[in-house]
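Two folds, back to back.
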Amino acid sequence: MTRVRHWCSAAATAGLVIALGTVGSMAHAAPVPSVSSRDTAFLRSIHQANMAEIASSQHAVAHGRTACVKQVATILVRDHRRLDAGGVALAKRLRVSLPASPTAMEKAQFAAVKAKTRTAYDAAWLNLQARAHNEALRLIDSEVASGRNAQVKAAARAARPVVVRHLAMVRGGVCHAPSAPKTHAGGHRAQVHSDRPAARH
């Protein structure tokens, strides 16, 4: 009987230690900041947009007809990979699940561009990028204005100037690739070159 009492006491003590350890680890675990449905929707939508941009721009690097389109597409692949890596890491920290592929509409738009041949391909790709980046800006501005999670809003603010730069390269469906800055008296000025034919006077 004495042995039974000792065993029960030891078991109870061990259970208490385990319970206290669990409570202690929970108390020291960093709480996950609250994420609103808007924040979640933004992280998912912008991830899909990044995936679509990376895929379509990789294709343009290989199949674009002009050096300008190939250069802009290379920049877009690099920048959207960086943006997406940050977004994926943030979603993981906030325990937000992300879709595995772009939306059906994004896939259909990309398929339509891939179906184009010769110079029609470049024009279709540039117009797609202009629409996509305008939509990305709309998503970003909506999150900055109405999002609730500070980390998600900060990520949106950080992404905005990158998307603005991209839009400047494809605005109006015309390619404007950045070139090396030229030095002038009084400072430096960034240059761009365009695939649009020069105006004749």
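---
second:
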Amino acid sequence: MAILVTGGAGFIGANFVRHWLASSDEVVVNLDKLTYAGNLESLAPLVADGRHRFVQGDICDAELVGSLLESYRPWAIVHFAAESHVDRSILGPGEFVRTNIEGTFTLLECARAYWSGLEADARSAFRFLHVSTDEVYGSLSADEPPFAESHRYEPNSPYSASKAASDHLARAWHQTYGLPVLTTNCSNNYGPFQFPEKLIPLVIVNALAGKPLPIYGDGCQVRDWLYVGDHCAAIRTVLTSGQIGETYNVGGWNEIANIDIVHTVCRLLDQVRPSPTGPYEQLIRFVADRPGHDRRYAIDARKIEQALGWRPAETFDSGIAKTVHWYLDHGAWVEHVQSGAYREWIARQYDAGSAP
């Protein structure tokens, strides 16, 4: 038995691969292009594990994807691979269209060809799980109810538009061809192995280095925060128990403003790794807001709880404490992931827009 995971060297994908192999003897075929956000160090404990088969490659390569399906005969594809950073999508939308739309199309077509040729029992058991984001739903005002699965799509960035398109492709391949598709739309993930361009690891890494903590606009943008281990458990639940053709929103029930996230991380660092120069909050700097910045996301995760029995195990307090301690305990990982390209990106993205 095997599953094919795309993007399994990225933040959520690597956590999922480790989560799956911790409780399963199945082979995981891990296909990742190893772009800037893919990091094999996140999978270091699996180097000698025969159940983990890593393949460096592009999901747009139909010949490669088809050969992996024929060689390993997986009963499921779990599709994480995506360009996912909004700021990068604003500066260079082409890669987001290629990976998120063309890549998903390629996977769906390869999966359809493979699935169509399976024997009846294997065909019935096969699943294609498409992992997506709450950003496809657009932005909420302060008093609107959270996103439910029936909320209309209103993407506001090249990133969210590309993910919305991929969601529609996955739905269409189920409706038109009968491909057994499942879709999950998750809120903001945080936890171990997250690349430090995202808010929480960026604050941790910059604070420890005594660098400014950049906050877009007024910092009052609200997000729902989901611990990555809870997300992995939700994906496993949907994959094994979800109803074919359905979409499940996955959230942490933690609506928190960005500025409050930063203050929380600073206070935790003050407690466990105090700075000789004073509280870390003094490093906070407000920078020019990004174009089209969505004001609020919130996930209504009642469907997955009521239908499948999943609910997050971590509160935000417990999850953020685990996350801060993980980054403190894994300085070598952080150092290695901070390549020259990463430092240039952070400087270009934030320094020019810094407010006094």
